[in-house]
Amino acid sequence: MMRILHQIFRTGIVTEPLPKVVKDEITVVGAKLEEAVKKYFRGSLTIREVDAGSCNGCELEIHAINNPIYDCERFGVQFTASPRFADMLLVTGPVSRNMEVALKRTYNATPAPKLVVAVGDCGCNGGIFGESYASLGGVDRVIPVDVFISGCPPNPAAILNGILRAIEKNG
Amino acid sequence: MLKEAIDNVLGTSATYNKRQFPASVVSCTVPRNRFADAAKIMKKAYALLAAEWAVDETPFGGGFAVYACYRFANEYLIVRTEIPIDDPTFPSLTKKFVPAYRFERQIHSLMGLVPEGHPDLRPWIKFEDWPEDSWPLRKSFASSKPLPHVNGKYKWIKAEGEGVYEIPVGPVHAGIIEPGHFRFQAVGEMIINLEERLGYVHKGIEKRFESLSWQEGAKLAGRVSGDTTVAHSIAYSLAVESVTQAVITERAHWLRALFLERERIANHLGDIGAICNDVAFAFMLYQTTRLKEMLVRTNLKLFGHRFIMDRVLPGGVTVDIDEKGKEEIKAELDILSAEFEKLATIYDESASLEDRVRDAGELSPEKARSLCAVGIVARASGLNLDCRLQNPFPPYDRFEIKVPVLISGDVHARAWVRVEEIRESIRIIRFILENIPEGEISIAIGRPASDTSGFAAVEGWRGEIIYWVQAGIKGEINRCMVRDPSSLNWLGLEQAIPGNIVPDFPLCNKSFNQSYSGHDL
After folding, report:
1. What is the tens place of the pLDDT at every residue in B38-90?
2. What was the pLDDT predicted at B33?
3. Quick one: pLDDT at residue B160?
4. CB nearest B226 (choices: A67, A132, A153)
5. Which of A167, B14, B165, B176 is a Cys-bridge partner for B10, taking CB atoms 3.0 to 4.6 Å apart?
6. Is the pLDDT of residue B30 over 70?
7. Separation between Cα atoms, residue B240 and residue B218, nearest integer Å
8. Which CATH number fits domain B210-485: 1.10.645.10, 3.40.50.300, 1.10.260.30, 2.170.150.70?
9. What is the pLDDT of residue B208?
10. At a CB cut-off of 8 Å and minimum separation 6, what does B80 contact?
11. Among chain B residues, CA nearest to A4
12. What is the mean pLDDT of residues B106-125?
């Protein structure tokens, strides 16, 4: 137990200060995001992540925005297990044919008003997988999309920025 | 040894294929009625089944062919059998090798060849709403057209009796993870059976390869499973280099190994944290993801991508490292090593953590062997399997590595194998930085000759990844078979779960952490 406490105190809060490169983009995006979440969602934006066929690269970066360096919860952004509680769907991947029904059902299970953000090049247009018998292409082929975040995978700052754009667009 | 075993029993009825590269991988063709005999011989020789796949060889004027790849110690042997178009059947290998169960369901679903004697021909990856006669891997299939929807029903395994109930989970899971469906039959809290249903993220990757150039293929291989992008790119590139008989520079090999070990550390860190988080020990998740973030940032700074995606191509690599970069990595490793050792001690000393991870999700060595498990799952269940050791691809043939093997096969074993591997990877990276040879980092790659095939096996962080590529008549990609370790290890999860309580499933699943995308393709 002492070791755990020692490690916690010695590590301190790694969230701040941020390294120079990331600091600029994260603090700027983060501050705006926090403000927007406060204004439109009373300080709490809840996201349901849906992998609709991704290679899991985008999931790595969505995980990263939850790590202590980016710590998206400090801006009021949190991930939920159920679409029933979600304000926003964060959808990755080209939509595979085998996920089409599940994605539609998840969308329908999310209470309106809802926001949909497509993450990654594949979520935008199918990416390297294109459109085929197994891949339907971008997320907007199956459900309405508010904002697209390009990148393969988009870095954590770009994802936070995309979430911000979706809020502002519909604010 | 495998070749002698085949020769002893099959004699002249096995003919050897000279168009398979590298020459160290023996490939023979046997008559269809001896295909199962070959499996029997391999079983007797203690070989394990590494992969089984089908190829449409009509462009060469033939019919179909089924291939089975066996592995024993430092040998790979491929057994091929030809199948006429008007009688698309072949003898099933399920009686000899359990994993043939999934491979053959897949061959049946996607290539339309019937494995005779297979106990369960429900479609796999192909869903019930696909037309039954759509076989995407056949050359006659129009792959760019959308498939029509039909009505169909999947027959789930049922359990009956007093107090038995079912819990369906997925495809959309509670966390930020990939989609798949799990169906539990339970009595009280005890799981009596788990049935997996995968295929949700099937993107038609193997078919897609056939429409790409060899260079474009590397981009796709890097996206078979995003968390394993480096290992998949290396395996694809090695397979392409073997079929084109290209000899790339030493420096390129060493740089690839550097990327590969960095990928291993980053993923193992994430997994150790996530396993602890699943037993409410969130402290560890925050600590390890902090270290993981440090690694991926160094990757971005030195190699231009957080996960080193698209930096390995057939012919070599696209980024080099200079003295300053080496120093930076060394300094980073010093911090990582010191911090990580503190965390490993904390893991080791936490009784409440130990209480949850010991004896949970046990996969016995016997089961792991009969399922032909690979990678971390195999090494946690007593199987000393690692391509870096047994089938060393360069530069692993130039230095020694240590591979941890535990025998308890539980969640703890799978976590601790990762701990030991991080330590070893740190050592390997330091060795690489000290000893990396000078030279060019890439060479130009030619076009392969018609009807030749290449093979490569690479130890990614999950385990052995196999690529088998075949050049068509004009030297284009006729077939690219991808075998992610997940294709074998998902069966291990299914076998490790019964007897555990329902709330332990996420923990057990996390300790396996197999790729859905790498399996579904």
Report:
1. 999 999 999 999 999 999 999 999 899 999 999 998 899 999 999 999 999 99
2. 92
3. 87
4. A153
5. B14
6. yes
7. 9
8. 1.10.645.10
9. 95
10. B17, B27, B28, B29, B30, B65, B66, B67
11. B346
12. 94
**Chain B (109-138) residues lying within 8 Å, Cβ to Cβ, of chain A:** 125, 127, 134, 136
User: Domain residue spans in chain B?
Assistant: 2-116, 210-485
* pLDDT tens-digit map of B351-398: 999 999 999 999 999 999 999 999 999 999 999 999 999 888 889 998
Q: In what order do the strands lie in the sheet with B64-72?
A: B15-16, B26-29, B75-83, B64-72, B48-56
Chain centre distance of CA B343: 29
Please identify among residues 76-115 of chain B the ones whose CB lies closer than 8 Å to any CB of chain A: none
Query: A55: closest CA among B227, B513, B125, B162?
Result: B227
Facing residues of B394 across strands? none
**Predicted confidence band at A78 (pLDDT cuts at 50, 70, 90)?**
very high
CB contact under 8 Å between B227 and A49, yes or no, is no
Using the structure block, give the residue that is written with the tokens 């790729």.
B515
Among B111, B141, B142, B139, which residue's Cα sits nearest to residue B124?
B111
| Rounded Cα distance, A3 and B341, in Å | 12
**Window A:89-118, CB contacts with B under 8 Å:** 93-94, 96-99, 102, 106
Check pLDDT > 70 for residue B508.
yes
Domains of chain A in start order, with CATH, are 45-170 (3.40.50.12280)
pLDDT, tens digit (0-9, with 9 covering 90-100), for B254-289: 999 999 999 999 999 999 999 999 999 999 999 999
Of B178, B402, B403, B411, residue with least CA distance to B272: B411
Contact A166, A146 (CB under 8 A): yes
CATH number of this structure's domain B2-116, picked from the four choices 3.30.460.80, 3.10.580.10, 2.60.40.420, 3.30.420.10: 3.30.460.80
Contact B415, B201 (CB under 8 A): no
User: Could you tell me which of B72, B85, B93, B73 has the C-alpha nearest to residue B30?
Assistant: B93
B297 contact residues in A (CB cutoff 8 A): 19, 22
Spacing of C-alpha A101 from chain mean position: 21
Report the sign of the C-alpha dihedral through residues B354, B355, B358, B360, in that order: negative
Task: Give the DSSP H/E element, type plus range, for residue B271.
Answer: helix B250-277
Which residues, listed in sequence order, are joined to residue B312 by a DSSP beta bridge? B317
Cβ atoms of B48 and B36 within 8 Å: the answer is no
pLDDT in tens, B300-312: 999 999 999 999 9
Are B2-116 and B210-485 equal in CATH topology?
no
Please report the ipTM that was assigned to this predicted complex.
0.92
Residue type, A60: L
Q: Which of chain A's residues have a Cβ under 8 Å away from the Cβ of B349?
A: 3
Three-state secondary-structure class, residue B183: strand
